[in-house]
Design a protein that fits this description.
The protein is an alpha+beta fold. It has helices at 53-59, 66-83; strands at 2-11, 14-25, 28-35, 48-52. Strands 1-2-3-4 form a 4-stranded antiparallel sheet. A hairpin with a 2-residue loop joins β2 and β3 (28-35). 16% of the residues are buried.
Length: 85
């Protein structure tokens, strides 16, 4: 079963939205992230990110430029806040 929700995050002093899908594969959560604002697609091609497990969410920004890293950290923080009890 998948869990789908929208979340808001702050990046460069603006508020943006993303659609998050979390589903289980091999007992681990997997994340599909769709950034809704087209201007962010310049930083993340197609505005889509995917990662496996919560450590994947933490390490998603590896190997990217600093602005993209900041964007991904903002999205990851919003997701973690949303799914925290």
């Amino acid at each position: 079963m998948a869990r789908i929700f929208t979340t808001r995050f702050y990046f460069n002093q603006q508020v943006y939205d993303a659609i998050i899908t979390i589903y289980s594969r091999d007992g681990r959560p997997n994340f599909n992230i769709q950034l809704m604002d087209g201007e962010l697609h310049d930083l993340i091609p197609g505005g889509k990110l995917e990662c496996q497990g919560e450590e994947g969410l933490t390490n998603l920004h590896d190997g990217r430029d600093q602005l993209s890293k900041n964007l991904i950290r903002s999205v990851a923080t919003a997701i973690k806040e949303h799914i925290s009890p």
